[in-house]
């Protein structure tokens, strides 16, 4: 037994000193430029898991790209809101208490003071059965196209936005064998933001990675490409979506950032690598 401990102790110390980083690329299915950028962020950059919004207008393009890249870890980005002013998406389950008068998802999880009245999902008292019907339809649809989906995350926090919604989401994740979010990880914050230039995002992400301590860390951001389509996306308080998300793509695929990962000895992981 003593000899076994002598052998295992260096391995245990090595595990405790390891820096693991899960980098997520969100919102596949929302725009063509988002689909392109998410794939690039994995194949050419540091992202290791991508999240798919099933009701998004470019969902089938996202499926095609992920079928062509079977090694990429896929999560379902459970969606109950549609935030942009000039492009919207609707529930798979049809109009119900989770939709506005035009049949679209509500823009926000909760009513914002700078938004028109009646635009916060949970302030409109959605019925639990409507929430469950829609979330179930999204999971079933993605698993039918991409059976390898490994986990679930929540777009704008809506799927876990109330205790009742969280209970529904947890039940469905258990039923379909999906991990919900990434428990046990620590967030890497304050490197991105719509007010930062692409160069500032790149430098800030490299600096943040250089400062990581041992443990398992999580980065959540939204890659994109600065295209005419994405320039039409935005809402009150966030008009520069295309430029902001192109900056995320630059940071995710940056040689400076990848060099920081290498110098710091960071192990890039996906949701699948979190284990049970």
Summarize the structure in words.
The structure is a single chain. The chain is α/β, with parallel strands linked by helices. It has one domain (19-274): Glycoside hydrolase/deacetylase (TIM Barrel, Alpha-Beta Barrel), CATH 3.20.20.370. The protein has nine helices and eight strands. The chain has helices at 2-17, 32-43, 59-67, 128-145, 163-176, 198-210, 228-231, 241-253, 255-264; strands at residues 19-28, 49-52, 73-78, 151-154, 179-180, 186-187, 215-221, 266-269. Strands 1, 2, 3, 4, 5, 6, 7 and 8 form an eight-stranded parallel β-sheet that branches. Helix 2 (32-43) runs parallel beside helix 3 (59-67), helix 2 packs parallel to helix 8 (241-253) and helix 4 runs parallel beside helix 5 (163-176). The two termini are 28 Å apart. Mean pLDDT is 94; it is low at 1-14.
Main sheet properties: 8 strands, parallel
Q: Which oligomeric form is depicted?
A: single chain
Number of strands: 8
The structural domain count equals 1
Per the CATH scheme, the topology name is: TIM Barrel
CATH architecture group name: Alpha-Beta Barrel
Q: Could you give the order of the helices and strands? A: HEHEHEHEHEEHEHHHE
Q: Give the overall form.
A: globular
Give the distance, in angstroms, between the N- and C-terminal Cα atoms.
Answer: 28 Å
């Amino acid at each position: 037994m003593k000899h076994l401990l002598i052998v295992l102790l260096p391995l245990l110390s090595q595990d405790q000193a390891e820096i693991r980083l899960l980098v997520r690329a969100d919102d596949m299915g929302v725009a063509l430029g988002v689909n392109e950028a998410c794939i690039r962020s994995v194949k050419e950059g540091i992202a290791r898991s991508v999240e798919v919004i099933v009701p998004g207008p470019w969902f089938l393009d996202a499926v095609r790209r992920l079928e062509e890249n079977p090694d990429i870890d896929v999560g379902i980005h459970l969606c109950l809101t549609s935030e942009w002013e000039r492009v919207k998406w609707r529930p798979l389950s049809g109009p119900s208490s989770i939709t506005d008068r035009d049949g679209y998802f509500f823009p926000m999880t909760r009513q914002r003071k700078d938004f028109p009245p009646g635009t916060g999902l949970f302030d409109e008292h959605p019925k639990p059965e409507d929430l469950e019907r829609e979330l179930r339809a999204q999971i079933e649809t993605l698993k039918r196209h991409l059976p390898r989906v490994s986990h679930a995350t929540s777009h704008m926090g809506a799927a876990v936005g109330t205790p009742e919604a969280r209970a529904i989401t947890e039940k469905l994740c258990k039923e379909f064998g999906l991990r919900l979010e990434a428990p046990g990880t620590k967030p890497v914050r304050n490197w991105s933001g719509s007010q930062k230039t692409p160069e500032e995002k790149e430098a800030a992400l490299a600096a943040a990675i250089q400062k990581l301590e041992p443990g398992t860390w999580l980065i959540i951001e939204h890659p994109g490409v600065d295209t005419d389509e994405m320039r039409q996306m935005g809402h009150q308080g966030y008009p520069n979506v295309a430029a902001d998300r192109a900056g995320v793509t630059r940071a995710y695929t940056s040689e400076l950032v990848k060099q920081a990962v290498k110098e710091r000895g960071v192990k890039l992981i996906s949701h699948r690598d979190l284990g049970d």
